[in-house]
Design goal:
heterodimer, A: alpha/beta, Rossmann fold, 2 domains, 6-stranded mixed beta sheet, 8 helices, 11 strands, globular, B: mainly alpha, ABC transporter involved in vitamin B12 uptake, BtuC
């Protein structure tokens, strides 16, 4: 992986950032966050907590009301969008989808021989060897995620942002995506992602940021995924259990009546996972 | 009809000019229409052509260059639509419906009150093979070559912005600039083709070949090529039909491409699901 440029303190430094849309109420308030080379950061929080806005601010597509986002000069970034936002009927093959990302400056429309080789290499690296000529609609859920990871890698991105990379995926595919991200991170790629999945994703990442308009807590999962921080993030009591050496976040029972209902319907079972 | 009768109109310069313009206009609309359809902008093409008719009439009344005046008018109405959407809780489709139809109505009123600038109103509304001049041929050639150059050199940012604007912007593509470039190309296409297509039918010339091409291929470059060929063929056949049937050229060109649509739809039963996903024509 290429050596990444740096600003004082990190690749991307978010300093006292406040953001709103069209003068409305703030979506982010006084957010501080530093992304350093080699980080693998998961941003968690309830719906509407500003996760996607924070990604957009770091990507530079949303302007701050106050505070700043400083990116290292010449830093190449890539974004893997939520698969739900993609038009899967759009007429592009896997190779065309990956290749379109090298779009800056005047270029010939077709892929050069070097570019074709690079696309084949990056698809091979992500376990999609030979799928270049497939239409994107013909891919499985995990492969769909990989196409957009491949597209980001093809632009030589040094930092890759993923917005909800595992939403809508089954457990096995979610594990595959997580392992792939871990491999890429081990190769030196810096990764920032948002997720709703506390147990399946966040608990396995080196760094977790709990966000609810402001940063409620940031650090290792064992420091951050604790009842106090989670309750302040989600506005609802939560418990953290130890299970086979893993931390599992669960809803705390709301009151005796609800607990009674759950027991009756689940034959005495406990609370649901978060 | 004998072959002699079929080829007789080619003896006339006005008809040859009409054929040149219709064929090139068909190809141009076919190619530009791919972006219009894939961006779900069918209604914008429809609205822009109507609004430009108002600009054409105003430019004629004020006495400025018809194409320049109509082009500026088109840009102003597009900005007005954007402004209304930002400042009031009104969707862009409704704002386009208000602004562009008002502009079209203004054009109709001015033409009835003061007469049509340049050509008669029927020719502007529905297209007419008569009165297509050599200057019109050069205009469409110029617009087509410029569009081809833009499509060639900006192929990737145009494709990236059309497929995935948010990610394109995030990775450094100047998407606002690319969007503006496409609107300029679309306006120039409408202006250069309104003689033969007629402003009321340009939207169909933009949409139908692209939708047919989409049903036939899953590859974007092939879609561009097929749509251009279908558009050019529809322009050529439609213009001939216009002469022999004595019907305005806009309807005959659009009906020819509609025949392609019916054939592609009926023949490709398995493509029906895709056809439903590529927007709707006006």
């Amino acid at each position: 992986m290429k050596g990444a440029p740096d600003v004082a303190g990190g690749l991307i430094v978010v300093d006292d950032l406040t953001v709103n849309y069209g003068g409305g109420p703030p979506v982010l308030i006084d957010v501080d966050l530093t992304v350093e080379p080699g980080d693998l950061i998961g941003i968690v929080g309830p719906s509407g907590s500003g996760k996607s806005t924070l990604l957009k601010a770091m990507l530079g597509t949303v302007a701050p009301v106050s505070g700043s986002v400083r990116r290292a000069p010449g830093l190449a970034v890539g974004l893997v969008p939520q698969v739900e936002t993609i038009d899967w009927n759009f007429p592009v093959t896997v190779a065309e989808c990956v290749g379109m990302a090298r779009a800056r400056g005047l270029r010939v429309p077709w892929m050069t021989r070097t570019e074709r080789a690079e696309i084949a290499e990056v698809l091979d690296r992500l376990g999609m060897d030979g799928l270049g000529s497939r239409h994107i609609r013909e891919l499985s859920g995990g492969q769909q995620q990989r196409v957009f990871l491949a597209r980001a890698l093809f632009t030589n991105a040094q930092v890759i942002f993923l917005d909800e990379p595992t939403s809508g995926l089954d457990v096995r595919t979610r594990h595959d995506v997580l392992h792939l991200l871990d491999e890429l991170n081990s190769d030196g790629l810096t990764i920032v992602l948002t997720t709703h999945d506390l147990n399946g994703i966040a608990a396995h990442l080196p760094t977790v940021v709990c966000l609810n308009r402001s940063v409620i807590g940031a650090g290792r999962p064992d420091q951050v995924l604790v009842p106090d921080v989670l309750e302040r993030t989600y506005g609802s009591p939560m418990e953290v259990l130890e299970h086979g050496g893993m931390r599992v976040v669960v809803d705390a029972p709301l009151d005796a009546n609800v607990t009674q209902l759950r027991r009756r319907s689940a034959g005495g079972g406990g609370g649901a996972t978060a | 009809m004998t072959l002699d009768e079929l080829f007789r109109p080619f003896e006339f310069e006005f008809f040859r000019n009409g054929i040149y313009v219709a064929t090139i206009a068909g190809a141009l609309c076919g190619v530009v229409g791919c972006y219009v359809v894939l961006r779900n902008m069918s209604y914008i093409g429809h609205g822009l052509s109507h609004s430009i008719f108002g600009g054409y009439a105003v430019a004629g009344l004020v006495g400025v260059n018809l194409f320049l005046g109509a082009g500026i008018w088109g840009v102003v109405t597009a900005l007005a639509v954007g402004g209304i959407v930002r400042r009031r809780p009104i969707g862009s489709d409704a704002a386009i419906g208000v602004v562009t139809t008002a502009s079209f109505a203004l054009g109709l009123a001015l033409v009835q009150l003061y007469g049509s600038p340049g050509r008669n109103a029927d020719a502007l509304l529905f297209g007419n093979v008569l009165g297509v001049t050599t200057a019109d041929v050069w205009l469409i050639v110029g617009v087509a070559l410029t569009t081809a150059a833009i499509g060639f050199f900006f192929y990737r940012p145009l494709l990236f912005t059309t497929f995935d604007t948010q990610v394109a912007a995030a990775t450094g593509v100047r998407t606002a600039w690319i969007d503006a470039l496409l609107m300029v190309v679309l306006s120039a296409t409408v202006l250069a083709t309104m003689n033969v297509m007629g402003v009321t039918l340009i939207a169909a010339a933009l949409v139908v070949p692209a939708v047919v091409a989409r049903m036939l291929t899953d590859s974007f470059p092939k879609m561009l090529l097929l749509s251009g060929i279908i558009g050019a063929f529809s322009g050529f056949v439609g213009m001939n039909a216009s002469y022999h049937l004595d019907v305005a050229s806009g309807p005959t060109i659009v009906l020819t491409s509609a025949c392609f649509f019916i054939v592609a739809y009926v023949a490709g039963g398995s493509f029906r699901r895709r056809a439903g996903a590529v927007g709707h024509a006006h």
